[in-house]
Design brief:
The protein contains eight helices and no strands. The longest helix has about 55 residues. The chain starts with a helix and ends with a helix.
């Protein structure tokens, strides 16, 4: 038979876990939203970079090395295009810095979750820990959040240095960048459904 003390502890544990899960879920949703919004802007920037690069190559590598404009005009246009390219690269870098900050906040929340969970006696029976017909057990969410964080960290490690590798004369670097801005749709769909629905629905 449970003592009143055990019952109170169980209720307190369950409430603490619910609050932790809801807070962490909200942080993941915020980062996912920022990730999508940021990615859309970066795609537009890469499209602009692609156009600038094409124009630059046409200008500097005209047929049989003959430039389409007089040298003075060509030089001026080349400088302007290099400047425009740098501005777009800087925009790309700044966007990824914002994502870095968002990801770091998410990582801190996850560390807080782990520390708090480590101090909770999960041997005490309660529905948040064990799950029931309407909700997943706590370990489901622990694994889900770990998978999501791993994905975001791996993705961001590829996105962060993009601006440094882009070269106005190197179409290949731009093509590779465009590919990185297209994450696996199946993976993203899984995270969307998993992050945005289960915790609030089941708790």
């Amino acid at each position: 038979m449970k003592t009143n003390k055990t019952k109170d502890c169980t209720k307190k544990t369950e409430k603490s876990l619910k609050n932790l899960l809801l807070a962490l879920e909200e942080q993941f949703k915020n980062h996912l939203k920022a990730f999508y919004s940021n990615l859309d802007i970066q795609k537009n920037i890469i499209d602009s970079i692609w156009v600038i690069s094409q124009r630059f190559l046409i200008l500097t590598r005209g047929a049989i090395c003959v430039r389409p404009y007089p040298k003075e005009q060509s030089d001026r246009e080349e400088r302007e295009m290099r400047s425009d390219f740098k501005i777009q690269k800087d925009n790309l870098t700044n966007l990824n810095l914002k994502l870095d900050v968002s990801l770091e906040t998410l990582k801190q929340k996850c560390r807080t979750f782990d520390r708090t969970l480590a101090n909770i006696d999960t041997s005490l029976p309660n529905q948040t820990i064990e799950g029931n017909n309407e909700r997943q057990p706590i370990h489901y969410y622990i694994e889900l959040f770990a998978d999501c964080l791993k994905f975001f960290k791996a993705t961001q490690s590829q996105l962060s240095p993009l601006g440094r590798f882009l070269n106005v004369e190197d179409i290949k670097s731009i093509v590779e960048c465009k590919k990185l801005l297209e994450p696996d749709e199946m993976v993203m769909e899984y995270f969307e459904k998993s992050i945005c629905e289960p915790v609030n629905r089941h708790l």
